[in-house]
Amino acid sequence: MRDLVARFEPGVFGLCVRLLHHRQDAEDVAQEVFLRVFRSLRRWDAARPLKPWIMGITVNRCRTWLSQRARRPELAEYLHETAASPPSDDAAELAREIHAAVAQLRLEFRSVFVMYHEQALPYDEIAAALEKPVGTIKTWLHRARVEVLERLRRRGMVTEVET
Predict the structure, then answer these.
(1) Which of 18, 123, 144, 153 lies at a CB distance of 3.0 to 4.6 Å from 109, suitable for a disulfide?
(2) DSSP of 75-135
(3) Which domains does the chain have, with CATH numbers?
């Protein structure tokens, strides 16, 4: 069990942080993910890769956590994490704007965007994790990129290139 956690914890925790936007929530959900994995391991189809299966559990646990969090008020302790800080330079400001744009994507698009761009998972592993066809994953990723780019344009971070 230790080896399994050591191998997959960075990816699970990273995905949780990006989908939940709160470190403590991500820690809680990551623990829940591994509890689910251990409880369900005997039902896992050994013919399928393990990583997409675990990432699928991760996305589902994050989705459940978000729906539960939406029904309860945000605690005051979270407020310090949402306070804006002055931009230190253009690269940092652009990174913050991209992060904010990704945070506003619907969960399916955000999941695919994070899994592809931040965790460097190939299309087929993302498709297996989310139990969707590869074509759907490609479409969601394209739509996520368009939405992020559109937000960056509205915020004046990028401009249209005339051809």
Answers:
(1) 144
(2) PGGGHHHH-----SSHHHHHHHHHHHHHHTS-HHHHHHHIIIIIS---HHHHHHHHT--HH
(3) 1-83 (1.10.1740.10), 86-163 (1.10.10.10)
